[in-house]
Design a protein that fits this description.
Layout (H helix, E strand, L loop, with lengths): L12 E4 H20 L9 E4 L5 E4 L2 H7 L5 H16 L4 H20 L4 H21 L2 E2 L5 H14 L8 H16 L12 E7 L7 E3 L2 E3 L11 E10 L19 H25 L3 E4 L5 H9 L3 E3 L4 H11 L3 E2 L11 E11 L2 E7 L7 E7 L2 H24 L1 E4 L3 H14 L5 H13 L1 H9 L4 H13 L5 E4 L4 E4 L6 E3 H19 L3 E4 L11
Parallel strand pairs: 5-14, 8-9, 8-11, 9-10
Antiparallel strand pairs: 1-19, 2-3, 4-15, 6-14, 7-13, 8-12, 12-13, 15-18, 16-17
The structure holds adenosine-5'-diphosphate and magnesium ion.
The site of adenosine-5'-diphosphate has 25 residues, from helix 4, helix 14 and strand 16.
């Protein structure tokens, strides 16, 4: 009698062949279904409650998926698509996940027709490549005309629709454009960096009071009450070393044999601090931002000199301050000269409800800025912040590539149409895969319609026939609920959003299709949950 061969421990879960494929596809579909209802300006919001009962109300694809704590391995791969989209572009997460889910759903149909996964994968790859080619063809160049500003504003508004109070969208878009124009300056658009825009949230007042600050707002208060609360004509010094006496118990190893020696040591340390503060004062500085600590003795001396100071300022805030006020970050206080200082119209401590902030206000031609978001409740502010980030991301994106595509499902319908024509030139079963790829893209226009309470089939049929007859700018305008020329209606999006969405959706879909064996080690209950 032969013994059974035991390859793996008993608690390993294993799904093979068809089971593995079906299970993975089901999970991917479910992820797409979850975010689907939030797509577009008429999409619904989701309320997410964390284990600690914190509530998030959002319409943002990646936020939803991050909060859901998804466990299924294939579903996690789909969530990764949203994360890539978020980090690369900052918008288009819902669309990317939906396309990935639909590609897999359609692949299932092909699997049912006994088409081998490798054939589907090959077809999908051909289709994705061709789709990128077509996308480039049907994109529009954004020129540098006067119209540009208005167009960029529209792009910001399209990105923000559905995510915040509609009546402040215009104001918020203005803020975005002004911020981007300021930090762009004459720089090449390629050097644009979103990190140079700081977003600060304050509770109180309404969204409409949100504002652009030509400077940096720190979530910090001055360290001592003795210090002035406002400094006009601020001369700012940025320091990344501590202004502290060395603590002989922690920092240093010295051998002291008499009380006099200790006294002498402390005296020396005090002199060092005094000298540091004197150097600061002599340089003409009246504001100090220190990345490290400032101890009580130094605080006392600074206050005596009428200097405003904050301590433990985060490194990235220090960098922003440096760009905004034109100051150098210095480590050696012996070398400080007026040349290293930055300037601002004023530095002021301002209280908003419970929050105390330090405003560095009115910088000359700042290369970093702050957008201050106001809002009645935390949930509102958080959602406005996400909307602003989408808007900023989109505007940056367009400036970088200089290309836009049409929204409202227009670009997807056109892509799908041309892919289907292209598929005719292929032979055999890959043709079917390319067609299914094309069908998957139609998921966007149908969902936009569905979420707005319109009939998806009617809308899609009409859009397709318009595109067939050469009206390739037709799309669904959800402000009027009509099919229109969306270029005229200015419903446009950055080209890069769609480029990235198609690329990552098809990548993850083919990757999942290639899996025919899932081996989960003990304790991972993930696989079952998609069943
Ligand atoms: P995503 O996370 O994919 O960005 P959104 O909820 O932001 O999801 O929705 C984006 C979709 O909404 C895009 O397909 C865009 O073209 C569409 N859209 C935005 N504004 C409008 C509008 N006014 N009319 C029709 N479609 C719109
Ligand atoms: Mg969006």
């Amino acid at each position: 009698m032969s013994k059974p061969v035991i390859l793996m421990p008993e608690d390993i879960q294993r799904l093979m062949g068809k089971d593995a494929q079906r299970n993975n596809i089901a999970a991917a579909k479910m992820v797409a279904e979850v975010v689907k209802t939030t797509l577009g300006p008429k999409g619904m919001d989701k309320m997410l409650v964390s284990p600690t009962n914190e509530i998030t109300v959002t319409n943002d694809g990646v936020t939803i998926l991050n909060e859901m704590q998804i466990e299924h391995p294939a579903a996690k791969m789909i969530v990764e698509v949203a994360r890539t989209q978020e980090s690369e572009i900052g918008d288009g997460t819902t669309s990317a996940v939906m396309i990935a889910g639909k590609l897999l759903e359609n692949a299932e149909k092909l699997l049912d027709m006994k088409i081998h996964p490798t054939v589907i994968i090959k077809g999908y790859k051909i289709a994705a490549e061709k789709a990128q080619e077509i996308l480039k063809e049907i994109s529009f160049k954004v020129d540098n005309s006067q119209d540009n500003r208005e167009l960029l504003k529209q792009i910001a508004m399209t990105a923000m629709t559905g995510k915040c109070a509609e009546d402040s969208k215009d104001k918020l878009a203005e803020i975005i454009i002004e911020a981007v124009n300021q930090i762009k300056g004459d720089n090449k658009s390629e050097n644009l960096n979103l990190n140079n825009i700081k977003i600060v949230k304050v509770r109180g007042e309404s969204i409409k009071n949100s504002e652009l600050i030509f400077g940096i707002v720190l979530e910090k208060e001055k360290i001592s009450h003795e210090m002035p609360s406002e400094i006009r004509g601020a001369r700012i010094v940025l320091i990344d070393t501590p202004l502290e006496l060395k603590n002989p118990e922690i920092d240093t190893k010295i051998s002291i044999s008499s009380p006099e020696q200790l006294q002498g040591f402390l005296f020396h340390e005090e002199q060092t601090i005094k000298q540091m503060i004197k150097n600061i004062k002599d340089s003409g500085a009246n504001v100090v931002f220190c990345q490290k600590g400032i101890d009580e003795f130094a605080q006392y001396l600074l206050a005596k000199e009428g200097i405003y100071a904050c301590r433990r300022v985060a490194r990235n805030d220090m960098e922003k301050l440096s760009k905004a006020a034109g100051a150098k970050i210095i480590s050696n206080l012996r070398e400080i000269t007026p040349f290293e200082l930055g300037s601002a119209e004023y530095v002021k401590e301002i209280r908003h409800g419970e929050n105390i902030l330090t405003y560095v206000y009115g910088c000359q031609n700042p290369k970093a800025l702050t957008i201050l978001i106001h809002g009645g409740t935390e949930h509102v502010i958080d959602e406005v912040e996400r909307a602003m980030k989408d808007g900023l991301g989109d505007v940056f994106c367009v400036l970088k590539s200089g290309l836009i595509v049409l929204g409202g499902g227009s670009v997807e319908v056109e892509l799908s149409r041309r892919l289907k024509i292209f598929s005719q030139s292929l032979s055999g079963r890959e043709q079917l895969a390319v067609e299914e790829f094309a069908n998957a893209l139609e998921f966007i226009p149908t969902t936009l319609a569905e979420n707005a309470g319109l009939d998806p089939i009617d809308i899609l049929t009409e859009l397709k026939s318009l595109h067939d007859s050469g009206n390739i700018n037709s799309g669904l305008n959800l402000f009027t609920n009509k099919i229109e020329d969306v270029l005229k209606a200015r419903i446009v999006e950055p080209y890069n959003i769609k480029k990235q969405a198609i690329a990552s959706a098809s990548e993850v879909a083919t990757m999942i299709l290639r899996i025919d064996d899932v081996i989960a080690s003990g304790g991972k209950k993930g696989m079952k949950s998609a069943g």
